Amino acid sequence: MMSDTSYRNRLVEQSGALIRRRVDRINRDRTSLERMTHRPTMELIKGIVALAAAAGTVPDESTVAVLSGLLDHLVSLQLEGGLFSGGDNLVSPPDSAFTINDLCLTLELMQRRGCPDRIVSLVREPLLSIARKTAPAMVRGGVHTPNHRWEIASALVGLDLFLGDTDLKARAEQWLAEGIDIQADGLYSERSPNYAAHVSNPCLIALARRLNRSGYLDYVEANLEADAALMRPDGLMETIQSRRQDQNRPFDPEPFLSQARLLALVQGNTDVVSLALDLSSRQLADPTRHLAELLVDPRLAGPLPVRATEGPRKDPEAGPVRVRHYRETGMDRVLLSGDSWPGSLATASVYAGSDFPTTGRVASGLANNSTIMDFTTPLIQLTALRLSPNFFDLGPLRPQELEAMEHESTWTMHDRRTSGYYQPLDPEFRSPEGSYDLTDEGRFFARMSFDRRRRDDMTLESDLRLSLRSDGFDLRVDFHGPVTSYACLLGLSGKDLRIGSGADRSPDGSWLVNGSDRVEVSAGPVDGAVALTLRYGGAPTGSPVTYDPGESYTFVNGDDAVEGRRLIFTGLTSAPFTLSGQFGVGQGKALKQIWEQARAMLG
C-alpha cells in the first residue's frame, strides 16, 4: 500500500514537540506529575511510547525518567478494587475504561515492529499488572450514558487480547447485543460531535479491528458523513442539536481526523474525503493520539483520494448549494456558499429538535438549545436566533415541526404551547384536611392534585417561515392566540464585531433595538469589512420587554447561554414579526471574495 509519508512525518514532528514540552514541564515542577489524574497520565505514557515506536529509538534519558515516573504514578492511582477515580464520577467503570482503552492501545503499539526493547521492558509489565487488576471490575462494571457501553465494550475486548479471559469478551458481547445507538440520519442518540469523536467512533473502530467485524465501520462511516455536514466556515462543528454538554458551544473537529482518514481510504465517501483532507491540513493540538492510531493501523498513512468536484456553484438567488436533512434530529443543515461542507463560506442550521416540548424539562442529557436558526460566515457568525413570547414563563419557542419547501430554500416550523387555569376539585377528590398529592402541572409542583382537576386551556401557536440565501435570510412569524409581548434574541460574534446604528447597549451588556427599523452590524478590518443589515417589523410594545429564557432557567438563577453579543428585538403578538438579514461589502468588492480571504486567514 502506498504511504503518505508527509502526513506521518508531520505527526512525528508535532508529537515530538508536544512530548518535549510536557516532559520539560514535569522536570521543572515534579509536583505537576503528582497532580495528574489517571487519564492524562495514561495519555502521556501512550504518547511517549508512540513516539519511540515511530522513531525506532529510545528517547533521551530525561524522557525515559519521566516515563518511569508516569508508570509509577498510574499504578499508585489504581484503587484496590481495580478501578480509577477522578472528577465527579467516583470509582467509575466507564471513566476507568477510557484509561484502559489507552492502556490496551499502548500494549498494541509495543507489539509492532520497531518499538525499542528498552521501552517494552520498562512499560509492558506495569501496564499488564494494571490490566490484570482491573479486569474483574470491568466485567462487573455498569454505565450511565449511551456511549459508555461502547467505551467499556472496547476496553473489555482489548483486555481479552492480552489476558485471554473469556469472561471479558462475553461481557463485551452483552453490551454490544444492545445494538449501536445510531439514528437513521447518521447521528448517535446523544447527537453530540464531542462524544462521537472521542468515544463512539474510536471504540467502534477498535472493536472492528480487534473482533474482525468490519460492519462496525459502517456505523462510523454513516456518522462521519453526517458529521461532515456539521462543518462551519470558521472550521468548527455545529452543536445546537446535541443532547450533551457541547450543545451551547461549537466543537473543534480535530479528534475526527484518524477516523475520517480511515473511512475515506476504506470507503471513499466524498463528504468524508473532504473532511479528512481538511483536518489533515491543520496544526494539531493532540498529534500523539493520531500517531498512536496510525501505528496500530498503517492504513491511516495512505494517500487520501483527490477531493471530488461538485460542478459549478449555483447563483445565490437559486438557493442553497446543498441541504442535509437530519430528520430524526429535527434539523436541516444548509450549505449556502462554498464547494464542500469543510470548504464552506456560508452555512446555516434550521432547527426544530429540542426535547423540551416532549419532556417539559431542561436537564442534562436532553437537547435544550432553543435556537431556531443560526448563520455562519468567516467574518460574522449569527450564533443563535431565539424568540421568546411572554407566556406562562415557558420560555423561547422550540418548534415541534420542520418542513423544507420550494426547492429547499424555504422552511416552515410550528410551535404550540398550552397552559391554563385549574378548576376546583370534584367532591370525591376533596380532602377535609386540605392535604393533596404533590404533582407537576408542567411548569411547577404544588400539593394541588393537578391531575384530578379540569383545566381551562390557553394556547399560543406560532407559525414560522424562514427563507435562506447565500447573502442572508428572511423570517416571518405569525402568532395565533392571546396578545402578549415577545423578545427575539440574536447572538452575534465575529472578528472586530461592531454593532452600529439602530441599537443601544443596555447595562447588562446586551444591545436593545432603539425604535429604528434597521440595525447595522459589521466585522473585519474597516477597509475589508462585511456588513450585516438587519431589518425588522412588528407591533411595538410601548414598554420595555426583556428576553425570558423560561422558568426552568430563571428559577435556579440561570440563563440559556448564547455565544457572542446579544441583540434583542421586541414586539407584540398582535401582528406578525418579520426579520431579514442582508450581508454586503463595500462598493466594488465581491462578498464571496471577502469571505474566501477571511477563510484563508482562519485556516
Based on the model shown, name its key terms:
603 residues; alpha+beta; eight-stranded antiparallel β-sheet; nine-stranded mixed β-sheet
What does this 3D model show about the protein?
The protein is of the alpha+beta class. Helix content is about 35%, strand content about 20%. It is built from 16 helices and 19 strands. The protein has helices spanning about 5-30, 30-35, 40-55, 60-75, 95-110, 115-140, 150-165, 165-175, 195-210, 215-230, 255-265, 270-280, 285-295, 355-360, 550-555, 590-600, and strands spanning about 320-325, 330-340, 345-350, 375, 380-390, 400-405, 410-420, 440, 445, 455-470, 470-480, 485-495, 500, 505, 510-515, 520-525, 530-535, 565-570, 575-585. Strands 1-2-3-4-5-12-18-15-14 form a nine-stranded mixed beta sheet. Strand 8 and strand 9 (about 445) form a beta hairpin. Helix 1 (about 5-30) crosses helix 13 (about 285-295) and helix 7 (about 150-165) packs antiparallel against helix 8 (about 165-175).
